[in-house]
Amino acid sequence: MKFSILTLFPEMFDSFKSSIIKRALDKNLIEIELVNIRDFSKNKHKKVDDTPYGGGAGMVMMPDVVYDAYQSVKSDMAKVIYLSPQGKTLNQDKVKALSKEEHIILLCGHYEGIDQRVIDEIVDEEISIGDYVLTGGEIPAMVLVDSVTRYVDGAISKESVEEESFSNGNLLEYPQYTRPEEFHGKKVPEVLISRKSSKHRRMEKRKVFRNN
Ligand code: 21W
Question: How many angstroms does the Cα of residue 24 sit away from the middle of ligand 1?
């Protein structure tokens, strides 16, 4: 799975050099290509945005610069996703579906947005990560890469994926405990302290903590 990320702030993605994403990168399960949209400015001052027609606050990213950045990464099978507050909210079903894609191009907007004409021309899908206002599409792009990478074969243990599919499709969870057996006077629930198989124990945990 290849992710190409078009952004004005490629440094924001430095945090990928740690964590679960790093492991998936090292194992060549995913590839992340970062493209600085500013590199495609034709302007001597590296200008990438301009004032909106019709007036209003803020600046709009120019269509030609975004288009040229896209041309530098496009492929035949690529799916182009624009991270946008107006998009459809990301959910786990969408995450699973995206993990089957070969190449995902993520377009991160800033300022008041991107000129609509280039959106109409290159974007397949608009995705939001929830109903709150951020300053740009970079954090949403990271959320998408992180959540999709978990579903790429080999990125996380089979047990973790299985454990999740057990969770009823609605991210049902139960409380977890580890050593010590007693902490600040609170004991680990008795049912968890037994010598049953880990699978048997998992089924019991669910029964015990359901509706809790
Ligand atoms: C925030 C861009 C607000 C544009 C007039 C008419 C990507 C995001 C973002 C941002 C506006 C996501 C406008 C959840 C988010 C993102 C930056 C205002 C422009 N002005 N998911 N239209 N929340 N945010 N709209 O903010 O780019 S995915």
Answer: 30
Question: What is the phi-psi region of residue 13: left when phi exceeds 0, alpha when psi lies from -120 to 50, beta otherwise?
Answer: alpha
Instruction: Order across the sheet with 125-128: list the strands.
Output: 31-36, 2-7, 103-108, 79-89, 125-128
**Average of per-residue pLDDT across 179-203:** 82
CATH number for the domain formed by residue range(s) 2-158: 3.40.1280.10
Over pLDDT 70: what percentage of the chain? 86
Whether the CB of 172 sits within 6 Å of ligand 1: no
CA 56 to centroid of ligand 1, rounded, Å: 15
Q: Is the CB of 138 under 6 A from ligand 1?
A: no
**Any idea where the domains of the chain sit in the sequence?**
2-158, 174-210
The answer for 111, left when phi > 0, alpha when psi is -120 to 50, beta otherwise, is left
For ligand 1, is residue 125 a contact (CB within 6 Å)? Answer: no
The answer to whether 137 touches 84, Cβ cutoff 8 Å, is yes
Nearest Cα to Cα of residue 19 among 141, 106, 144, 146: 146
Other beta carbons within 10 Å of 69: 26
Among 187, 192, 185, CA closest to 209: 192
pTM to 2 decimal places? 0.90
